[in-house]
User: What shape does this take?
Amino acid sequence: MQSWLAFLNKAGPVGLIIVGTSVVALFIILDRLWIYRRLRFRDQRCLHLLRKRAMEGDYGKAAEEVAGEGHPLVAALVEVLGRLKDGRRPVTRGELEKTIGHVGAREIRSLERFLPTLFLISNVAPLLGLFGTVTGMIKAFQAIQLLGGKVNGSVLAGGIWEAMLTTALGLGVAIPAMVVHNFLEGKVHRAVAELREESGLLLDALEDAGRLGNTAVARLTPLSKGAVAFQEKG
Assistant: This one.
């Protein structure tokens, strides 16, 4: 413990700041890895069964097929099934696509939480290391000036230590942070691709089964009493 404290003391205040950013980066990485566990389906057959139930018009059973799954795709599909189950008027493909877009955007924002901060740390850490290098060299040259140029290596050691340590710390934080950020971002992109693909397959299946309303017909469908009252208030 004392050796670590002595090590950090030699790195100076800039080194302590870099260590602080590493703690934040570690927290973000662990948090995101824990959250991204839900991007795996416990049973890959559930989406096929969901489409099958939906084509049969059994929307309640279809939603039960993905109960307990945490993938953002599930939230969007369940919202679609809820609108179809409501059944007050025919629902068009365009309306369901909007629903999927809104729910999907909300879920993806949740997955991307803290990733910009991790990206910022991966970019700022090496700059902090460079800043520490400059301050360390300034200290070394100040020591030379104070002693009138009559110095030896031990006098310069403090400034050089700080310069080298902060550079190493900055790179040591930035490299893993950048690698993990790209890895986590790839998981988010994969989730977005799955959301688009599976929601498209569901809508295609519903359309083929004749479960979706026609756009022109939906426009001519009389408004409900609640909708009329809402428009009158506006």
Summary: The chain has a mean pLDDT of 81. The longest helix spans residues 153-208. Residues 19-220 form one domain. The two ends are 68 Å apart (CA to CA).
